[in-house]
Design goal:
binds 2'deoxy-thymidine-5'-diphospho-alpha-D-glucose, alpha/beta, Rossmann fold, binds nicotinamide-adenine-dinucleotide
Length: about 325
């Protein structure tokens, strides 16, 4: 099978490429990734089956590049996106271009080349904040951040290609991922790497926002299952095993790392900060999905990974672009 993976130099995409090449020896992967600040060829260093992988540096919103990448492809797994909520608050343009326009360009090329399956990787954030219970796949979409709105728009576009053109599409909506190769702008890697350097973790607002954490390897297994066994035109939620307030998350990591409570700095809240996400996963469980690890075991392994791979994240944090991002994002935030 020839698979087109978009965004395979990013956090989840690179874990998926590794997972797939190691697991299925007949699969070849074309990896279309423009390499934004979040894309990193080092994420694929030393992987098994590297000879069955080809990286094409290109933009998913460029029809010519996409047409070339799509040739002879059996299936697409579409990860490429602008993925960080905070960045969408200060500059939404790139989110609309990549997440919405890029998805449309990919769908058109997949239609032209008669691709057999197209998995669109989406997020639980499209449902918006849920005070109680858990979102089901047919619940209404109420995105609150520009990032979530761009993902909801792309989900609806995917749905429209199923209804209008009968395209063989599937959508997954996953909760908060953690694990190796996560760019140090997301909460967990910011926390772990800051604490390794004795720097504070900036906790937004009252710290009572709830997220549902899943190890990236389990997310990849869920996507692989949907790719192979999902029903065309359907949406599948993929949730985690630990629904925690950010304060609880901080305490779990603090305990493992032996960090003092003074290294938590309460700062001004994120604008439009969703209070709680939760997804009902009975549909993907009916396909046979099971988590392969517990939250505590995976969290410990993740912290160890950041200890053992300091050159990976220090290189990223040392870049001028990262430093100015960090300064802009956090230094203006008032302490609470
Ligand atoms: P990431 O930011 O780590 O990686 C995104 C990748 O896409 C990068 O390699 C980047 O270079 C590439 N990319 C961006 N714009 C591109 C363009 N125009 N053309 C080609 N490549 C481009 O993101 P991630 O956290 O790995 O998320 C991957 C996908 O999973 C996204 O669609 C995201 O919405 C979704 N998702 C993420 C999470 C999470 O917790 N991180 C949870 C649920 C769903
Ligand atoms: O729910 C799935 C989503 O999870 C994905 O679709 C997104 O791509 C991914 O980035 C993630 O979004 P979040 O906004 O939930 O993740 P983030 O790591 O940015 O933040 C997690 C929580 O921690 C959130 O409530 C905000 C808070 N936070 C975040 C950062 C970066 C802080 O308190 N301080 C921080 O410095």
């Amino acid at each position: 099978m020839k698979l087109l993976v978009t965004g395979g130099l990013g956090f989840i995409g690179s874990n998926f490429v590794r997972h797939t090449l190691a697991k299925s020896h007949k699969t070849r992967i074309v990896n279309l990734d423009i390499r934004t600040y979040a894309g990193n060829p080092e994420n694929l260093k030393g992987m098994k089956g590297a000879r069955r992988h080809q990286w094409i540096k290109g933009d998913i919103a460029d029809p010519k590049v996409v047409d070339r990448a799509m040739k002879g492809v059996d299936a697409v797994v579409h990860f490429a996106a602008e993925s960080h909520v905070d960045r969408s608050i200060t500059d939404a343009g790139a989110f609309l271009r990549t997440n919405v326009l890029g998805t449309q360009v990919l769908l058109d090329a997949a239609k032209k080349h008669a691709v057999r399956r197209f998995v669109h990787v989406s997020t639980d954030e499209v449902y918006g904040s849920v005070a109680t219970g858990a979102s089901r796949e047919n619940d209404r979409l109420l995105p609150n951040s520009p990032y979530a709105a761009s993902k909801a728009a792309s989900d609806l576009l995917v749905r429209s290609y199923f209804e209008t053109h009968g395209m063989p599409v599937l959508v997954t909506r996953c909760s908060n991922n953690f694990g190796p190769y996560q760019f140090p702008e997301k909460a967990l890697p910011v926390m772990i790497t800051n604490w390794m350097d004795g720097e504070p973790f900036p906790l937004y607002g009252d710290g009572l926002n709830i997220r549902d954490w899943i190890h990236v390897e389990d997310h990849c297994r869920g996507i692989d299952l949907v790719l192979r066994k999902g029903k065309l035109g359907e949406i599948y939620n993929i949730g985690g095993t630990a629904s925690l307030t950010n304060k609880q998350l901080v305490e779990r990591v603090r305990r493992i790392m032996g960090v003092d409570a003074s290294l938590v700095e309460h700062v001004t809240d994120r604008l439009g900060h969703d209070r709680r996400y939760a997804v009902n996963c009975s549909k993907i469980k009916r396909l046979g999905f099971k988590h392969s690890t517990t939250f505590d075991r995976a969290l410990k392994a993740t912290i160890e990974w950041y200890w053992d791979n300091q050159s990976w994240w220090r290189k990223l944090k040392g870049k001028t672009g990262y430093k100015s991002y960090y300064k802009k994002q956090y230094k203006g935030l008032a302490k609470r």
